[in-house]
Amino acid sequence: MSVLDSKVPQGPIADKWTKYKNEIDLVNPANKRNIDVIVVGTGLAGGSAAATLAELGYNVKTFCFQDSPRRAHSIAAQGGINAAKNYQGDGDSNYRLFYDTVKGGDYRSREENVYRLAEVSGNIIDQCVAQGVPFAREYGGLLDNRSFGGVLVSRTFYAKGQTGQQLLLGAYSAMNRQINRGKIQAFNRHEMMELVVVDGKARGIIARDLVTGEIERHSAHAVVIASGGYGNVFYLSTNAMGSNVTAAWRTHKKGAFFANPCYTQIHPTCIPVSGDLQAKLTLMSESLRNDGRIWVPKKKEDSIAIREGKLKPTQIDEENRDYYLERRYPAFGNLVPRDVASRAAKERCDAGFGVNKQGQAVYLDFKSAIHRYGKEKAFTSGHKNPSQEEIIRLGKQVVESKYGNLFDMYQKITDENPYETPMMIYPAVHYTMGGLWVDYDLMTTVPGCYAIGEANFSDHGANRLGASALMQGLADGYFVLPYTIGNYLADDIRTGEISTDSKEFEEAEKSVRNTIDKLINVNGEKPVDYFHRKLGLIMWNKSGMSRNAKGLEEAIHEIAELRDEFYKNVRVTGKAESKNAELEKATRVADFLELAELFAKDALHRNESCGGHFREEYQTEDGEAMRDDENFKYVAAWEFKGKPSEAVMHKEDLNFENIELKTRSYK
């Protein structure tokens, strides 16, 4: 085990980023056109990075397994993007955004990276407005803001319930400009299968053309991993079904340390599981918690009657409703952080108060908001004594203007009208705070290999605050990586083009072909999804919303057994030399089966509860997370040693010089 160096600049935290930019090496414009950069993943982080690097003059190759970057999972981030603009005049600042993010992550993130994130957040909004992103505006024409969980200010910029999609269109348009200029070569329907390391530096990748099956070599002076998170290790999650860990995991196996894999976020506001054959869960934006009130019946018999179809939620009187978040956390109410809200919902359902047939759901109710907005709308329209019908009609109009597409989506999926009947929600796997370990430069432990956005671990600690994923992805891509990667590439101006005819490329390609041949030739009896579903159940039941030592030890054993069975009995139909969706799934599930064991191993070693990592043995009397700062105030970064059970942990000690370490309280 070693202690990792994060390469954070010296000096006061508010000056570090400025000092860094003033002192780094630069690449002059004439030399940039002789340097190649590969970007794997073209969501918000990868798309913004590719566009910016190409604009600066670098030659960029982008890779995404979708048919278009527009299909990146970033479009699913509906609710908004944080920035410390303080347009509301409610006391926001760079420091408060920094503080809220560190506190929200339960004091398990690197202070310096988070402060830089807060510092550049305002630039993101300016950039996106210039690109034409249609952010919501208030009556005076200024950009509007709303609140998200874990904060006491309104700093979330939004475009209805389509924020991620609109931001991605902005990044995509910037990419297209560079594609048209010839500065970006876009390789869509290509999947990275291996990182190529030459003389200790990342010098390219091996990719598979998902249409033809061809294995390709691509070289560059640096490689950027922007492939998102690994939530689909649980099978059921809010992630797109194609989201996977392969690019990050193959990078890990080539020497990049994997940090805090057990830090996984469970989002409290998802449509509940409806059946055993379901393959994906749907997220209802956290923005809904601004106006929706979460409750279950106070009486268990009412919950039972609802589950049996004998009672409707609209028949439960106000005094018989338990608004449990408002009761337990009066200061923040329904806007507590996601990990807190998720565990509270689980506690109520485990106690027998769940409201769907499976007993695994709570209500998200907009009745109060409709009445409040309706009265306000009537009053401002000159109707001083509106009827109840008019109040409801006007209130629904206001709610529709703010959340209409989300309400429509819910109704299409559930066949229930959320304007009339409360939504049913339950927590689900959503985001992964763990990822490839990176230093202040966003470089992994493999020189020349960078990781940005959800693919790295750096900014969110043990729990991500809502609307911070888009902020981190665009901060990394537009405003951080273009500086830090230049500092590294300044040493490559005389290197010349990287050849793909070296033994390192040959060995990497051979390794990929061997992996594919091994999977194709198993000729077992079970489809890939059989193993993925079994893995997901192990992960959810024993490494999910709450964990304990016994369950994690069982999970490690069961995952290893399942992996052995996978390689003996998986059936991959079709050929390797053509389009083959089953082969794609098989390579991804093979990586999930390795990651899952490291995930459980990481969760077992961390004998504390913090953020999204809740160990049942370590909780307060009232069920809140109990951190152990004396023994676990560090990042756990794992080095691959042949198989997950033999991974070696390295530590990065976390220092808190600008924020006082204390127990989180939202009461």
Automatic annotation (TrEMBL):
Please, which domain of life does this record's source organism belong to?
A: Bacteria
Annotated active site: 338 (proton acceptor)
Query: Where is this protein localized, as stated in its record?
Result: Cell membrane
Please name one Pfam family that this protein belongs to: Succ_DH_flav_C
- Cofactor requirements of the protein: FAD
Q: How does it sit in the membrane?
A: Peripheral membrane protein
Provide the reaction this enzyme catalyses: a quinone + succinate = fumarate + a quinol
- The UniProt record lists the EC number as 1.3.5.1
Query: What protein name applies here?
Result: succinate dehydrogenase
According to its UniProt entry, this protein's organism is Psychroflexus halocasei
